[in-house]
Amino acid sequence: NEEKYPNNDMEIQVQIQSLPRAKYWVGDDLYKFQGFWIPTVAIPGIIKFQTQFKARDSDLLVTSFPKCGTTWLKSLVFMISNRSIYSISDNPLTKLNPHDIVPSLEYNVYRFKPYQDLEILPNPRIFSTHTPHPLLPSSIINSKSKIVYMSRNLLDQFVSRWHFKGRLKVQGASTSISEAFEMFHSGVDGFGPSWEHVLSYWKASLENPNKVLFLKYEEVKENPTFYVKELGDFLGYPFSEKEVKLGMIEEIAKFCSFENMKNLEVNKSGKRAIAHSFENNAYFRKGEVGDWANYFSPSMAKRAIKLMDDKFSGSGLSF
Ligand code: A3P
């Protein structure tokens, strides 16, 4: 994978044109790239990520399929790994949206030139990516860097994405939920098929549990303090007895909760510092489990449940 693609923007664009193409949301086509349907704008960034990224053993990688809780996981990983530097009440997340603190490799770091010299960043560097596991550069796989993956019931993910995309009404056009559902169901879905994305990280976590921690949105929501502790252990930032006694785990879980993050001034009224189309409040909608039932027709629900059963059967994974 890593050798076949040029590093030059023009040549990348030419090469992309020869890939299978599919219509997605208005103005946002997908190409079948290395086995996954990737949004046009993300492909050059992924190629550069694959060919240029040099992982450090101390790097922390926040990974997810879009709308599965990336924003939340960014906050948790940042707070846990930086707690010796910042106090809870005065940390960078009170002034910046999590996406401006933990940059996306394909959408921020390698999309805009120049973004930032990655070499001068202090440890631990924290990055995020929606790149499926099989497409990650060998530099990450071969280093001792840690990968955390946030998964979610894909029906809730779909509803979340439909609302999110609905904010981007390109030239007044929008995609109905039934049209969007057909794309989701066919697997022609940005970074998808969604179930293949989830299964790729699930399998990697089973094969190498010290390298990949697989989380479920629903479980973290149910018991956030358990997972703050779990993340601390996994990432190499375990909580000391003193910190446990001081209630540090609870404080981080509470700070990163949907209610707290949504109501921070920066997330209520701010805009992304890094050039992007969305206002910060777009990343905080409802934060609930099971919201899909409010949007699916009975026939959509039947088809979606069957699809999930088929795709996840035998994997040991269910939502
Ligand atoms: P909903 O649209 O269902 O509310 P991502 O961060 O991957 O873009 O995912 C966005 C989803 O995560 C949205 O789901 C959003 O509300 C939810 N979310 C954002 N921050 C959260 C938090 N701190 N806790 C729980 N859910 C959160």
From TrEMBL:
SUPFAM superfamilies: P-loop containing nucleoside triphosphate hydrolases (SSF52540). Keywords: Transferase. GO terms for molecular function: sulfotransferase activity. Pfam families: Sulfotransfer_1. Its EC number is 2.8.2.-. InterPro entries: P-loop_NTPase (IPR027417), Sulfotransferase_dom (IPR000863). Residues 57-316 form the Sulfotransferase domain. The keyword Plastid does not apply. It is an enzyme of class 2 (transferase). Belongs to the sulfotransferase 1 family. PANTHER family: SULFOTRANSFERASE SULT. This is Sulfotransferase. It comes from Dillenia turbinata. The lineage of its organism: Eukaryota, Viridiplantae, Streptophyta, Embryophyta, Tracheophyta.
